[in-house]
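Bench notes, afternoon.
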Amino acid sequence: MKRTLIFALMLGAAMGAGAQTYKITFKLEGLKDSMLYIARHYRDQLQLMDSARVGKDGSFVFKGKRTWERGIYALVHQDGEKAIGDFAIDDSRLFSITADEKLTPTTVKVKGSEANSQMFAYMATWSEAKKRREAIDLRKKNAVTKEQAEKEDQALLDEMKAYDNEARHPKKPQLFFDLVNFFDDAHVPDTVKDKPYYFRTHYWDRYFDDQSADWRMKSGKARFQYLKYSPDLFKKLNYFFFGQLYHADSDTIIKEIDRLAARIGDDTAMLRYVFDHIEPRYYRSTRNIGWDAVWCHLASEYYLKGRCPWALPGTLTNMRYNYNRIKQSLIGAHGQELWMADTNQSTNPDDWISSHRFPTPYVVLWFWDPDCHHCQEQSEELKKLYDDMVAKGEKRFEVYAVGYESDVPKWKKYVKEHDFRWVNVGGPNVNIDYQEAYNVHGAPTMIILNQRRDIIMNKTIPVKNLMGFLDDYEKRSEKE
């Protein structure tokens, strides 16, 4: 049902002004499908655009009147989900392609489309080169033929380098080769000292600055109309944020988001293409340190300031609620002071214990559940570390352990049996909702506060890494 709806919407939206007559024919020997679809790539999805049933001669003929944007499209099996292969729609809307059932480039024959002729010829040449390379690699393993095979390998490398350079710059520019050139990585000059920084900051230059493309547009916005349906744009986007920037700190990621958004400008379509993909990833991550700060930046500076007009009112309402909740527990924020009853469970607030008023440089807020197996394991490791510190007189932190358990007698019994000598608090007697204050929605959760009781870690790190984290934090603090 979902696929049918997407297909109907795409078809309906395509009709109207600017529509052109088209007839695109595929004949794939050995194919068992009775229906095929043409789909466009949009991020990691396939949006169905047109359908055709098999004819008496085994051909699939897509025809009618509609507007086809230039780009790389997919030919899709009758299940509407799995692509057979890609092809190009450029200047011609009247062409035919014959091939095997997998649209293997070496079997393709094209009539009426120079773009597809060049694209499949290029792919076929590289496919044949790959087979030659595999045969050479086998001969390299033989001592008798190794030396000659290495010479052949270098000759093949030189041959394909020359071929690639010539093919990518045809006398008459073609969309496919423009796209191939665009999706090349940014070139980093040998003279550059900070190569990762240069690569990162010049990653999108071809998109915004390269004016050599066939469509010769003067802005990234215009060029995007041809790139957004390319299967490789999503890969490029995904690699940049979740490959190149995966281990970057939140400030760096935020800076790159702002840099890209500034270059996009008022191109809402591209901004949506980017944000609809990265926003959920930064929100849902529970393991990546600092990604909650990235999400809060997206929410506050883009969505909640009206720069994402596609966002529905309900979405923005939920985002505003989550932003107000999460921002309180970001690294760098001041930790909210908790006052809770200990195992005596006094209802008098004067007897409650503060999470902040300890002489130690650090406080580890430890939200745990005695029924949680992982909580049990980590609590035992934390107990050993804590007891060793106390025994040596080197108490760097206090543990403020909050029993994340509504069954108070069970929690009290577990604390007593395991001899937890740190500060044990829990139960319903508390000054504020600690789940909201520290974004605690599961156990175990670890929050680390420094001497000012600012949050310096809001992710649950393994207890074995705790001392190392504090050492690194102190080294960083000395440099600041």
